[in-house]
Backbone:
């Protein structure tokens, strides 16, 4: 195994400067740790394809000899994945674009229009990026219950929006501030309103940032658990993470099916990540670390 | 003509653009934060029409009559200290390694980052199965290596459960620190490093005197974000141990949730939340000051 890796390294190093043995050692160490890092995934996928007897009788790392696709079918039905998957999809599809649009509007005004109270709003927003919502689960329940929105889509989407807005506004306004003034001055002089400038100029040029935020928010919304736990009590309204948690509670001894349930829950976010990888990094870092 | 009126009034336009965000944020994020403090001075079961003011009795209750609170407090502190050390340290090491020109470094970065995007509750479910005393991966590997005497019920033994949970947390969060450090490393002046090399500085010296000072702002950011996200640890504990065995892995966030939403003592739950909120503010406010000064000086 390691011999093959070193050969591969040799091939790659042809164009590089003279071989540096420290780097070779470093690479081997990094690759070995990476194997440890993916081991849990391999273990989960293997188990998800094994029958009960195979789980108990074979080593954890032996591939399934007789793949049990039936585990997935059974987990899908028993775990009510059709319901939870639909709920997660509806909530994510509404929340993510709506949240980005609302945040982008606010970010534009904060970056480009002088108005009193602008600084206060900015500080308030920045503050919101760091406050843990886990602290306010009970009052959130009380509030949403007061509106009669427990077990409804709006009841969970509105708080999701509220806790997504600060980070998105913060990132977008710092991006908008970097847009050259000349680009908008001409339009202003021609009498265009801020709404027009926002829609015709700022939205198109910020597509890469919006894409990055879209992906990050998609994953965050898809994965959210604590708020959903409090705000969605009815089984018919559960999202995927709630469904998985309940599945573990009920069927934790059906190893194959439990692991199939894990794979099905994790897969959509993992696929989105693997497809849009580069946006992730730019989205994460554009806000937190600037050169 | 309504449109011309709008175009002429800057303030109205700003208000229209900012209002949707501010209303939603104010109602569903700021208001609950204020309400949690109000609730902490009241007695309420979550259902009654009136919430009765009881002064500091909820605080006195959690501080003097609730042994679990102090366990949760100690665990939260331990967890926070550990998460401020290990994920950032491993993240930094990985970033330094993966910042070199190495074969397949993008794939390696992707592998280390992958756990970050997985739902914490799914991570909990995965690791609970991996820690399974009979068929889990850890005990299987140990018996494979002939280390049977180390075999444990990793999540069921009171002395190790918290650390077992923490290992899962490290696996999930290291990638996040790594990516932030990789971004920070892009800001390190390459010519400075080159100059140090020509002057005969070895690897360690170049790291110590060139890279590390340049990384200072990134280090602060990573540490603060690590502290904040560790205070939020909820899903992973909920899914791995539920605070057990015998409350030995209880945390402030989870204990607040349990008091309010399962025992229906909203007053006590909110008092615990308020304590957690104050701890968070004690970290967030100085950090925001620092960040603002930094921004102003860079403008």
Residues:
């Amino acid at each position: 195994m390691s011999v093959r890796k070193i050969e591969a390294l040799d091939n790659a190093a042809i164009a590089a400067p003279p071989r540096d043995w420290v780097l070779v050692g470093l690479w081997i160490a990094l690759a070995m740790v990476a194997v440890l890092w993916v081991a849990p995934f391999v273990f989960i996928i293997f188990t998800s394809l094994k029958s009960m007897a195979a789980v108990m009788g074979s080593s954890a790392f032996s591939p399934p000899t007789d793949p049990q696709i039936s585990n997935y079918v059974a987990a899908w039905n028993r775990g009510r994945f059709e319901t939870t998957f639909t709920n997660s999809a509806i909530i994510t599809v509404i929340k993510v674009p709506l949240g980005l649009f609302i945040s982008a509007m606010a970010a534009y005004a904060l970056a480009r229009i002088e108005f009193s109270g602008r600084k206060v709003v900015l500080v308030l927003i920045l503050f919101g990026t760091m406050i843990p919502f886990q602290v306010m689960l009970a009052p959130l329940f009380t509030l949403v219950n007061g509106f009669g929105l427990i077990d409804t889509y709006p009841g969970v989407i509105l708080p999701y929006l509220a806790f997504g807005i600060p980070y998105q506004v913060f990132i977008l306004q710092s991006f908008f501030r970097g847009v050259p003034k000349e680009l908008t001055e001409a339009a202003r002089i021609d009498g265009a309103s801020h709404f027009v400038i926002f829609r015709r100029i700022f939205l198109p040029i910020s597509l890469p940032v919006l894409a990055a935020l879209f992906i990050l928010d998609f994953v965050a919304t898809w994965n959210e658990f604590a708020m959903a736990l409090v705000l969605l009590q009815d089984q018919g309204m559960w999202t995927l993470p709630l469904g998985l948690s309940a599945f573990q509670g009920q069927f934790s001894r059906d190893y194959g099916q439990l692991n199939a349930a894990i794979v099905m829950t994790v897969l959509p976010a993992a696929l989105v990540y693997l497809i849009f990888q580069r946006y992730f990094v730019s989205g994460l870092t554009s806000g937190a670390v600037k050169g | 003509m309504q449109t011309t009126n709008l175009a002429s009034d800057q303030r109205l336009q700003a208000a229209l653009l900012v209002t949707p965000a501010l209303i939603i944020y104010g109602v569903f994020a700021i208001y609950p934060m204020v309400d949690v403090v109000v609730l902490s001075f009241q007695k309420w079961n979550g259902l009654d029409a009136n919430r009765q003011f009881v002064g500091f009795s909820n605080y006195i209750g959690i501080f003097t009559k609730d042994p679990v609170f102090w366990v949760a407090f100690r665990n939260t502190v331990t967890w926070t200290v550990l998460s401020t050390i290990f994920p950032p340290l491993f993240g930094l090491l990985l970033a330094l390694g993966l910042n070199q020109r190495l074969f397949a470094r993008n794939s390696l970065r992707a592998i280390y980052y992958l756990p970050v995007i997985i739902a914490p509750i799914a991570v909990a479910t995965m690791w609970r199965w991996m820690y399974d005393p009979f068929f889990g991966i850890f005990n299987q590997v140990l018996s494979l290596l002939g280390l049977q005497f180390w075999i444990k019920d990793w999540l069921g033994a009171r002395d190790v459960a918290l650390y077992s949970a923490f290992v899962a947390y490290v696996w999930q969060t290291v990638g996040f620190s790594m990516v932030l450090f990789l971004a920070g490393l892009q800001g390190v002046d390459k010519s400075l490093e080159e100059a140090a090399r020509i002057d005969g500085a070895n690897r360690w010296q170049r790291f110590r005197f060139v890279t590390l000072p340049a990384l200072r702002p990134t280090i602060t950011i990573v540490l603060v974000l690590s502290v904040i996200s560790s205070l939020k640890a909820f899903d992973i504990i909920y899914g791995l141990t539920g605070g057990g065995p015998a409350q030995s892995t209880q945390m402030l966030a989870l204990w607040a949730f349990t008091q309010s939403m399962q025992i229906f003592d909203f007053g006590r739950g909110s008092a615990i939340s308020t304590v957690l909120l104050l701890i968070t503010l004690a970290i967030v406010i100085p950090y925001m000051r620092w960040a603002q000064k930094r921004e102003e000086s860079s403008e």
Chain B has one domain: 15-298. Chain B touches chain A through 99 residues (CB under 8 Å). The longest strand of chain B covers residues 42-43. The longest helix of chain B spans residues 266-298.
